[in-house]
Amino acid sequence: xxxxxxxxxxxxxxxxxxxxxxxxxxxxxxxxxxxxxxxxxxxxxxxxxxxxxxxxxxxxxxxxxxxxxxxxxxxxxxxxxxxxxxxxxxxxxxxxxxxxxxxxxxxxxxxxxxxxxxxxxxxxxxxxxxxxxxxxxxxxxxxxxxxxxxxxxxxxxxxxxxxxxxxxxxxxxxxxxxxxxxxxxxxxxxxxxxxxxxxxxxxxxxxxxxxxxxxxxxxxxxxxxxxxxxxxxxxxxxxxxxxxxxxxx
Length: 249
What we know:
- The chain is α/β, with parallel strands linked by helices.
- Helix content is 41%, strand content 16%.
- The protein is built from eleven helices and eight strands.
- It has an eight-stranded parallel β-sheet with strand order 7-6-5-4-3-2-1-8.
- Helix 5 runs parallel beside helix 7.
- It holds the Pfam family TIM.
- One of its GO terms (molecular function) is triose-phosphate isomerase activity.
- Pathway: Carbohydrate biosynthesis.
């Protein structure tokens, strides 16, 4: 059986209660491919997690946008993986480029976070991606390999990991990696997994693309053989998110 398409919606730091209710209503009323064809995960801010979980249709899942690197305690402002499990939140996004760039999260720190989240039963969307400077210098493959290696060194199983390739230069900029550029990096990531984690891991791990994904470009991106879905930012707050989910077909 092939890798099931997965579409994640990262709402980032957006949304009042009323905004969130409107988005959920659009999602609940949408006609999309069945859960056998596409897995849908939306990621609201922490303060809206339980609201969204309570209102959202049962075939869509909820993710947190981050969690702390170890068990809770004297870590003001952080949210532990155990808290997410206690709330019944099944997924978490880790290693997003905004956290790497703005908050200084290193490859090793992200690897530790992924391993800990998995250890308490969460499923993880782990983000990797290069900056514009790194792409222009020809180091894209080396950068995403190093980010992936930091995760691989800390985990024993990839069963509950989705790898999200998000070129930093394409996030929120309107610039999109061409289908060929996206496929090239996804292919290199899968090749790295095969050489370092085994053929089974490479064949089964879903690698999704993120970076200005829209209703206009999702179809052609989704046809690439190593693109197993999307992690969507701004468009996940709009009705066009439904069109992106439908790209699974």
